[in-house]
Write a structure and sequence with these properties.
16 helices; binds magnesium ion; Nucleotidyltransferase, domain 5; elongated; Actin, Chain A, domain 4; 4 domains; binds adenosine-5'-diphosphate; 38% helix; Substrate Binding Domain Of DNAk, Chain A, domain 1; 623 residues; 26 strands; alpha+beta
Amino acid sequence: MSVFQIDFGSPDSGQESAPPRVVGIDLGTTNSLVAFLDLTAPKVIPGPDGSALVPSVVSFPAGAEPVVGAAAQRALLTDPANTVYSAKRLMGRGAADVAGELALLPFPVAPGSESVIRLAVGGREVTPPEVGAYILRQLKQNAEAFLGEPVTQAVITVPAYFDDAQRQATKDAGRIAGLEVLRLVNEPTAAALAYGLDKRQNGTIAVYDFGGGTFDVSILKLQEGLFEVLATHGDTHLGGDDIDNLLLRVALEDIASEWGADLSGNHEALQRLRRAIIDAKHELSTRPVTTIAFDDGGREYRRQLPREVFDQLITPIIDRTLASCRSCLGDAGLTPAAIDEVVLVGGSTRIPLVRQAVRALFEAEPHTELNPDEVVALGAAVQAGILAGTVEDQLLLDVTPLSLGIETMGGVVSKLILRNSTIPASATEQFTTAVDGQRNVLIHVLQGERELAKDCRSLARFDLKDLDPVMAGMARIEVRFLIDANGILRVSAKDLRTGKEQAVEIKPSYGLTDEQVEAMILESFDKAEEDFKERQVRETRVEADRILAAVEKAKQDDAWFALPPDERAGIDRAINELLLSYHGDDYVLMQQKMEALDHASRGLAEAMMNSAVRGALKGTKIE
Ligand code: ADP
Ligand code: MG
């Protein structure tokens, strides 16, 4: 086995002797918080109003400075078209990806937002990362005021299900806010860190996160102090908001029957009623009964709400979260009994019925010692402390800074592990052969973001030998990438027909600096369009090779000689035209010529098929 040496880049290199303070940030859909590691325990940082929760709302009044947090939340009522909330749902997305989402949000989207959304608010256009940056800037200011020192570096959390583009957009938000994002950490991993669960070294942890607008559950595997997300499941439209809407409907019906008035068109009254309902909901988490109290134009509405009634009302909502948990367990291939620890995250897990339901499902007492709406930020602060060197000898949750893949036909790259994947990471994909009777395949391992092998960094090459010589496309070769906790990449290739296997290990020890990684990423953005086209051209050529080879083979068959001469001439003409287009870069033309050849040779294919059927029937007696 050959051993190659590469460096995955160390995200915290280049730090000077007096380490600056690194903060941890939970950039939430509903609320955001910043925390820091104080001596040894993480603490959330309060804003000027004394609250650590900054509502994730930014208002863009026309001709005035944007407003963030609680003040912006008030603008939801007075200036809804210019006030952005739930921007996290739009991070790293194009309008086409989130059309359903956008239909639910009241702020308008600028034209040309297909690939990157731009919101048209307050007479300007802002992208979701810019909206996120306003929130991050507010948190940065809160932290600087509280700590009395500049804050320039942060760890930010993201949902475990965030893809590469969403993670990148979150990093961009940090950069725009003047924060160097040292690491993105998965929210469930941060929650587990806040509880110090990494200290138990090994175990299986379920993290149940029920927030304002979203629900998700993740199952983490802790191995030698390192977390891996085994499975994640959830509903991006299920949260405390749904409970509020449910109670709002009940109250509106009450009011309609008591006052004979329909308030549903009165936005101002609705907003105040919603506030009263949320207050009552929060109170019910610590008391057996509450009162929804609302006044409008001298009229009073009072409704007692005992917890049993509330519980009954919300049971269907809780049941949906439990169904998700069961699916997640199923995806991880685990039973509830296999879960060692359960962590509750998100403001809505303060509801006693939620705690009870989770306890019953996982047959374990969930962790509730920390505030559920602070726990993610606290975990981010622990990770920040580790990176800043405040805490030593603790795990570093690492990510791959560049994508890893193999070269496939036509010199294009097939990526198996994407940039920014948390490690340990693994991926398996099946490939096949391109030539009949092929006995060897070359596995060429590459690192980088570009589409073509020649533009990526070559890490290793090895041959998988002595394959069963079968028809092109019939071989099944399984390629597996595994990056272990130390960042060592193992690539193995296995012929599933013979069971033969070959592998290499690539060790992280020399190679790329941070600047080189950055440059490789930037270059992939610059060249994206060019690369896309080149990839299309090459993939089309591979397809053309396949068709040309098939037709050449068919021309040896008896069926070919039995064809009328003009049909044969037609096929030869189509072959020539395809060959003429083959070396150009007009892949659309090449595809047309391929289709034309396919069409011209249809009669030949049919004749061959018929003779094959006749051959197969030969000797079969039909009485
Ligand atoms: P997110 O992660 O979506 O940003 P949070 O974790 O901050 O959101 O959760 C916000 C939700 O938690 C809101 O719906 C809020 O009403 C709810 N919540 C906060 N405190 C309580 C409480 N004491 N009882 C019930 N629900 C609560
Ligand atoms: Mg949250």
